[in-house]
Fold this protein.
Amino acid sequence: MDTKHLLEIMTFDEKVGQLLQIAPFFFIKHADVEIAGEVKDLGLSRKNIFHAGSVLGIGSAEEMMQVQELYMKNHRLGIPLIFMADIIHGYETIFPVPIALASSFNPELVKQASRTSAVEASTAGIHVTFAPMADLVRDPRWGRVVESFGEDPYVNEVMVQASVEGFQAGDLKDERTLASCVKHFAGYGASEAGRDYNTVDLSRIQLHNGYLNGYKKAIEAGAKMVMTSFNVVEGIPATVNRYLLREVLRDLYQFKGVTISDYDSLHQILNHGCAEDDKEAAERGIMGGLDIEMASTCYIKHLKELVDEGVVDMKLIDEACLRVLDLKNDLGLFDNPYRGANPTEANRLVMSKEHLEQSLKAAYESLILLENKDILPLNKQVKVALIGPHATYDMTNGPWSWRGNQAHNTSLYDELKAFGVDVIHVNDQVDVSSYNEHDFKIIREADVVILALGEHVRESGEAHSKASLRLPRHQDDLFHMIKQHAKKIVTIVTAGRPLILNDVKESDALIYSWFLGTKHALAIVHTLFGLNHPSGKCPMSFPMHEGQVPLYYNHLNTGRPYQPQGHNEFTSYYLDMPNEPLYTFGEGLTYTKFMYGDLHVSKTEMIPQDTLDITIDITNVGEYTGHETVMLFIRDRVAAISRPVMELKKWQKIQLNPNESKTVQFRLTAIDLGYYDQEGKTVIEPGWFDIMVGPHAKDTQKQSFKFIKG
Ligand code: GLC
């Protein structure tokens, strides 16, 4: 399709219509029937509806084809709709939530999860997914931490790139792909006090050296869309923020794709106090660089008068409309408006055995073994008492799994029984007062108590922030009560965020499962009995107390760093709590044991065109085959800006058999040593750098080298 020519023959209303995204209910029943009640306030007429450029959400191939057919009949030029939806970590086959996938430190799993999500969702005629979420998050109180890849900018970059590549698979003409819309641009994960939709106040140095990295990487990976965030940046709502949408996105990142607001976020700049009315919001949006307006109608109601009044240049509308038309062209929609929709294919592909196997494999590598006092893996002959609110819980898909086919989900009880385990008692109550002497007697008879704790699926995700990070509903009390009677306790915590584990840390074994999706319970049971060996590691710090938050490993040193040994009163510490997390970034155990040899670097002086080779021998000195994620951090000791005490720059996940050794090699180039200045330009300064290699941020060996500018 010659989109430039098409633009020339479009009317003003048809152009602005392309910038409107509405929900499908306007089409599925007779549109004029649906414009009722509060929806009428949107000011949408039948004409507007049949000019809209895209639809948010669709339920099936049949629905999509019905809507597209109705729409195409009513559009003068037959410009097809784009169908967009939130396909975050699965469509009907649900994979582990993103924070869990990050715990695997295996980008191939992230790529596979996105690939399979695209294959399944595209059969319903969905063309764009509002994913990946590339928001860096250092505050577990924020409910959407569950959708993130954690606290580290580099992990975020690697996983975001893998996700975009999985969704788009290199060629959007392939109808089993989804165009990726990376979100939420920008800095949404830094919401003050961890409260969703709250103020964000980041310096440009912080933006460019942490919070923007993921979006930048998504754009480099070819993401076709960027969604703006609800928050302000530098006091200006991101949805109308020229610095973000034009200076950073268009000029610095050279992004050519489409920007879209978040749900009603253009209209909501009135709540921010940044527009008197929708007309001013429309002006600030189009001038700021926003293309599509999701679920509000500022553009459709006011752009015409703004152009007539000479306030808005028609060129801006033409540019935005052309980007939308080009996206439709990239997706092949002008050739096939029903791209992807195929009920027969849906029956064949959705929740296929292969996809369920993929979900199980991802779950295997996403759970984290935090403690194991030589009790796991369990012998299958053990007598088990299964206790706690997650004992019979099967809502394990996690947030943003709106199409997840719950029918295939199981509970720990289901899977323990199916595995042939002798479960002599089950009590899924959380309130300690609901346990009696009968319970205690049986618990005393059991070889092991499997204590299944955690959050309900509705306790994390959008608009589900928390002030307290303790296990909910006094589950610590349940732990202490069970501990009085149990021989051994294996605690499993299911949650969408890092929680405070100070008490359950005393379990004989502690597994953090996150929400692992369709195969959650099966993956856990296979892990308990050794069919799967855990390899997950913490993608975020686990605090001892909410008062420590935000808490992350790659912090700055401050001018008065706390020195536990030579404690000086006037340093950066708390009177009532350590500075350190309970579990730090990268911590996670396996069933075997790895020994690290000496760290070697290829040179102690490096010039810009050099590469620096780092090697270390890893040996599996345990009795089981296992995976180890070896991490390489750097520290720039002295620079114009204060640099973090540690920054992850490389990692490798390796598998070793018992007694097997491997020399792990990393290669650094000058660019790995740099940081971004406040204009987002890379700066690499000469001077001494430390290299730290180890299993996690608290356990590393160090070598140093000097970078000499030529
Ligand atoms: C929501 C979310 C965003 C999602 C959008 C469409 O409010 O913030 O992540 O993609 O609306 O559902």
In short: The first helix runs from residue 3 to 9. Residues 30-38 have pLDDT under 50 and may be disordered. The chain is about 30% helix and 20% strand. The two ends are 51 Å apart (CA to CA).
